[in-house]
Amino acid sequence: MARKLPPLTTLPAFDTAARYLSFTKAAAELNLTHGAISRAIRNLEDQLGIQLFERGTRSVSLTPAGAAYAAEIGAALDQISAATLVASAPRPAGVLTVSTSDGFAGRWLVPRLYRFHRAHRDIDVRIATSGLLADFVRDGIDIAIRYGSGEYEGVVSELLSEVDVFPVCSPELLKGEHPLREPADLRHHTLIHDGFPIDWATWLERAGISDINPNSGVRFDSATYATEAAVHGEGVLLGRSTLVSADLASGRLVRPFGQEIKASSRYYVVYLASALRQRKVRAFRDWLLAESDIDNEHRRSE
């Protein structure tokens, strides 16, 4: 439905005159003549079909309808002013701000970010990590990677990666006195926990193992630290396919057995619909999706 709007050029004249209760002061602030202010307000009154000012010989005052209208128009112009400041706020040219979780940044993004830099040397990437959802405008975020349902209000979300969960460990744990060859061998090793919803209790039940305490072992709040512990042979981690892909590709981690669970949530690339007009955002989004395709190809060839 089309908005019913007054002549927009008349509103600054009305708002200023209402604040000063003076056409002369309004004219001085807006760098217009007294006559231009008077004509603008008369035009507005004609359009609205109401009288906004009582005009005296040397003064003006607002009518009750004018006072009510001035309060609403003043608030609306303040909102327009604030939105204009946000839209026109300068951002450093060539700087791309990415919001994501600590685990995704440390285990997926950072190990391959050099490839983006090689292809786009004019774009400087700034990574903001937080467990909270970023506000794109307030926080100055250009693009985000989020783990969840993909249903985020007011933004575009594109699937980046599905997530499978499976045990991973250092290659060193495949040999020695108690080599990992089948799920039952986990009773000889430390379980590493990182707080992910799919935990060892779920995985062990799916694997048919009932004589291992799923709550034993070492716990981390960070997927980054939990994965590093597994890399250094401190135990076996339930790895998320997206976060351990680089370590599996490099041989720092291995999968001792094949059982896996598919997570219901996924990783998504998220951005404002207007953001792709910026070359830096479009380039990073395309690079993220291409890197995910490489991961998927590696998984299919395993």
Automatic annotation (TrEMBL):
Pfam families for the chain: HTH_1, LysR_substrate
Keywords from the UniProt entry: DNA-binding, Transcription, Transcription regulation
SUPFAM superfamilies (UniProt xref): Periplasmic binding protein-like II (SSF53850), Winged helix' DNA-binding domain (SSF46785)
Residue span(s) of domain HTH lysR-type: 6-63
Keyword Transcription appears in the UniProt entry: yes
Superkingdom: Bacteria
InterPro entries listed in its UniProt record: LysR-type_TF_proteobact-type (IPR058163), LysR_HTH_N (IPR000847), LysR_subst-bd (IPR005119), WH-like_DNA-bd_sf (IPR036388), WH_DNA-bd_sf (IPR036390)
UniProt key word Disulfide bond: no
Record-stated family: Belongs to the LysR transcriptional regulatory family.
Name the record gives this protein: Transcriptional regulator GcvA
